[in-house]
Amino acid sequence: ALLIGYSDHPFFYRVVVDLTSGKYDTTAFGDPSFGYNSIIEPFFAAQPDDYSFIITGDLQGSVGIYDWDTPQTSSPIVPARRFEAHEDGAVTALGWSSVVLATGSTRGTTTVWDALTLEPLRLFSSPVLRAAPGREFGGVSRIVIKQELLVIIANNRVMSWKVGQVHHREAPHKVKHARARNPIPKGQRMHRYDLHRVIKESKRELEQENAYARRTMGREREQRSTLNMLGLSESEAIEYVLMLSREEEKRRRVSHTIDEGVFEGDFEDEMFLPVASSSLTSHGPALPASNQSFPSLLDDHHSRTYPRAARPMTDEKVQVSPVFVPEPMEAGITISPLRIPASLPGSLTSTRSLPDVARSTSSSFEHFASISSSISSSTSSLEHSCSAWSTPLRSPPSSPHVGTPILRTSSTSTENHDRQCEEELRATPDLDEMDADLKFAIELSLAEARSRGEV
């Protein structure tokens, strides 16, 4: 038969093996209503007439005695005797003889019981004077009973007790042994030695605890001291760090936007003020002259207001400044000088320059004929005298749609218009008609000045 026991388990098992057939029977011993077994000591019969039994101790300080020869049953076998041996801890050691039963606990105490009646006979305290700081008392690890001698081993101490009669010694002679009072008794020397040893152990453990606390709590203390110096709490410090991170992210985004360059393909084709189809159809006679003088204005949608940038040979970034667009100073259509193509014929100081675009007056007045202004100062008097002011106004012409630039004339039409004006100057005009026209022109100028806010 085999005895199988487990630590921290309420049962132990008996396994009977039949070597011939290879079969085995298992029987469980234990009571689940009590604690787990902490020690199991078998005491098998040495003679045929003796009985075999098992003594167990559990974590609750109880002791159970089981009959090993109990027949096999399907249910666990409960102990034949059970009693509470120790109230201060679990049972850690067991010793038995035909006379007494000794049990030891985790607190170092040992109790001797009568083997038949299980009544307590003697209680031994722990041989260890006191436990070291932070440690438990050394439990009893072994109990040996040999006839009248009892040996108890607890921690690193050994205690023996012998059963027998106590013989009283005679008192020493007072005069003969008077000097023997001065020496320190042996028990006091041992107590002093133990006291010094305990003090050293306590100091060593305190140093270890302080070192551990410095390692684990040093960083937290440093952070708290830094926060106290700054006058911030933990939440305020977290908010400050979040604010710095947001500012850094904002600066990074701004720098990333500034560092972005222009690569090949970023320039898209644009048109330079395309002429509306309605204007081209309504001014059909002026198209041939304009086509001859300004062919670049009638190109397809690939015409540009500025020269195309050269294609880069690499993918390096290029800084490009924004195009300057002058701010308009008055109502109406304003053409930026940066958008005038360089292919226009003639010089800006020549007498036959590009006429200005017609302007529309305020909506509160009638639409009058557009007045052309010349860039050159040498021919301003001639053009003003030959303009619409020198001829009577029969009917006000319809002004074109605002926002649509119209080409007024070309170089050929300008020469024909100059010859016609010279012929009209040679003729003798009617003075009354000229006075009426002059008066009408003055009134028109005043009205236009009021609309602009100049008067």
TrEMBL record:
Top-level lineage group? Eukaryota
Q: Which residues form a coiled coil?
A: none
Parts of the chain that traverse the membrane: none
Start and end residues of each stretch annotated as Disordered: 387-423
Q: Under what name is this protein listed?
A: Uncharacterized protein
Instruction: State the species of origin.
Output: Suillus discolor
